[in-house]
Design brief:
The protein is mainly α. Helix content is 74%, strand content 0%. It has one domain (2-274).
Length: 285
């Protein structure tokens, strides 16, 4: 899980670098295109055939693909103008949103302690945003929209996981991002420069490697055990911001991050206490 988070953080840093030269939707499309060959090889290695890719619920897959395009497009737009660590801090509300959305969409029961943790997490977001003191910009709104789409995507994975294989969900996620974002980006498409081929290769490798490592982690241990390590991306965000762009978020962002992370960890702890844990094959959008 730690290695997977490191790989995905490097992928985000690569997308941030490319977002300075290409539109956000084009970078999202390129993320799908360059990762797809690696995903196909991984799917074939796991399944030994590709027939299971067609046994899916298409309505849900298309809905999930639409959410993925909005999620990636908004996130890439956001990190083009804000530090990775600040974007990660705001994005960390997604586990809390998943908990909140699981009640109306999945019929799950959330106790008062978890609701208090969700409220505390949103209070942490307000600490970062400082409404009334700092103007809310488009990049900040884009991260929050991306987090909402991620949460909805995760809920759809729980629903699709009852019938569709992890391999199929991984494959169609990449296909729909590549095709859907590519079509939307077409009017403003900019020719990809040969000098950026190394960045594109890094984007494909880190994206595919992160996905495979996360899948391996979820197969080897209960979700509640390894999920807290997702917050290690904040460390990588700070290190990458400092090493590549020489930037750090304001100190108040770390205060908000501490509140949000603590709330998310408590929600995970309460879910583990309420539901018997078992190993599962997971998938991270």
């Amino acid at each position: 899980m730690l290695l997977g988070m490191a790989a995905l953080s490097l992928m985000d840093a690569t997308m941030k670098e490319l977002s300075g030269r290409y539109p956000a939707l084009e970078v999202a499309a390129l993320r799908g295109v360059v990762s797809l060959p690696f995903v196909i090889v991984w799917v074939y290695w796991r399944e030994r055939h590709l027939r299971t890719l067609l046994a899916v619920r298409w309505g849900w897959q298309f809905a999930r693909g639409g959410l993925a395009i909005v999620m990636l497009g908004c996130f890439i737009f956001a990190i083009s103008s804000m530090p990775l660590s600040e974007a990660y801090t705001l994005f960390f509300i997604s586990p809390l949103l998943i908990t909140a959305l699981s009640v109306p969409l999945l019929g799950e029961v959330v106790g008062p302690r978890r609701w208090l943790a969700v409220v505390a997490g949103f209070a942490g977001v307000l600490v970062v945003l400082r409404p009334g003191f700092v103007a809310l910009d488009l990049a900040t709104l884009a991260v929050l929209v991306s987090a909402i789409c991620y949460a909805l995507n995760a809920v759809s994975v729980r629903i699709l996981g009852r019938t569709d294989s992890t391999a199929a969900m991984s494959f169609w996620f990449m296909v729909m991002v590549a095709v859907g974002a590519g079509l939307l980006a077409l009017p403003n498409w900019q020719a990809v420069r040969l000098a950026d081929s190394g960045w594109l290769l890094a984007l494909g490798i880190t994206g595919a490697l992160g996905q495979m490592l996360l899948t391996a982690a979820f197969r080897c241990a209960p979700i509640s055990v390894i999920a807290p390590f997702e917050y290690s991306t904040l460390f990588w965000g700070v290190m990458l911001d400092l090493a590549i762009w020489g930037k750090l978020p304001e100190p108040i962002v770390f205060v908000g991050a501490a509140v949000i992370v603590a709330s998310g960890l408590y929600v995970i702890y309460r879910e583990r206490a309420a539901v018997p844990v078992s190993s599962a094959d997971g998938f991270s959008p």
